[in-house]
């Protein structure tokens, strides 16, 4: 089939999305996007078609809801896949990192967690859960588990507003290597509420186990990031 003929059969939402992308080029961060009714008239399609195209842009983080309207979104925070902390990654891009404490305490390691941290089942673990912010916007939910035998004092002394990696390094522990797995998921109702997100919004889920120079596990981290606000980059070498 020739290109011209194929173009005739493209879904209307695809054509509308292309027109909306051109519209966004002429707008700046935080600028209001015209209402659905206006866009439908401009593009000569139904409001439902415009709504579908706008939803795709919303999921990709090109636009965001603000009150009853839609505005051009801020650029995504691009986090490096490295042994650097979230704080270091945000600061390197000129963003202001922040954190909101959800919980900090101790729990007993179940079989899976004990295996990941090389601990006996039932061993005490420090659990820290925080909402991560960038320029005041909620971007992720981080849940960290630390062996209490090594970092037990943090359950009482750690300032949740500070960098956890900096606090760990201050004890003399050096992050040497890590294993990380990334997958896409949908947030639970609790997670979506904590991140001010819709439950239907795709999320990036990271599982990380970090080791010190002796190969001893330092932490096990479960990080859930809003796919519309965060992207990841890795430097690859042969």
TrEMBL record:
InterPro entries: Bact_HTH_transcr_reg (IPR050679), Chorismate_lyase_/UTRA_dom_sf (IPR028978), Tscrpt_reg_HTH_GntR (IPR000524), UTRA (IPR011663), WH-like_DNA-bd_sf (IPR036388), WH_DNA-bd_sf (IPR036390). Residues 10-75 form the HTH gntR-type domain. This is GntR family transcriptional regulator. It comes from the Bacteria. PROSITE patterns: HTH_GNTR. Keywords: DNA-binding, Transcription, Transcription regulation. It comes from Rhodococcus kronopolitis. Gene3D superfamilies: Chorismate lyase-like, Winged helix-like DNA-binding domain superfamily/Winged helix DNA-binding domain.
């Amino acid at each position: 089939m020739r290109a011209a003929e194929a173009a005739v059969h493209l879904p209307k939402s695809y054509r509308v999305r292309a027109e909306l992308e051109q519209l966004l080029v002429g707008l700046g961060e935080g600028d209001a996007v015209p209402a659905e009714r206006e866009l439908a008239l401009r593009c000569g399609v139904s409001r439902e078609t415009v709504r579908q195209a706008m939803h795709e842009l919303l999921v990709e983080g090109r636009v965001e809801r603000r009150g009853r309207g839609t505005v051009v979104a801020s650029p995504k925070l691009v986090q490096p896949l490295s042994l650097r902390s979230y704080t270091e990654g945000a600061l390197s891009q000129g963003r202001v990192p922040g954190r909101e404490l959800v919980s900090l305490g101790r729990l007993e390691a179940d079989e899976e967690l004990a295996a990941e941290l090389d601990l006996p089942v039932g061993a005490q673990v420090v659990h820290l859960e925080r909402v991560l912010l960038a320029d005041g916007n909620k971007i992720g939910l981080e849940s960290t588990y630390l062996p209490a035998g090594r970092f037990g004092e943090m359950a009482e002394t750690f300032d949740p507003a500070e960098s956890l990696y900096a606090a760990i390094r201050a004890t003399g522990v050096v992050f040497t290597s890590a294993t990380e797995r990334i997958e896409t998921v949908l947030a639970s109702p609790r997670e979506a509420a904590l991140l001010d997100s819709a439950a239907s919004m795709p999320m990036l889920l990271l599982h990380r186990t970090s080791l010190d120079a002796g190969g001893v596990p330092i932490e096990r981290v479960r990080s859930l990031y809003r796919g519309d606000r965060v992207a990841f980059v890795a430097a690859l070498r042969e």
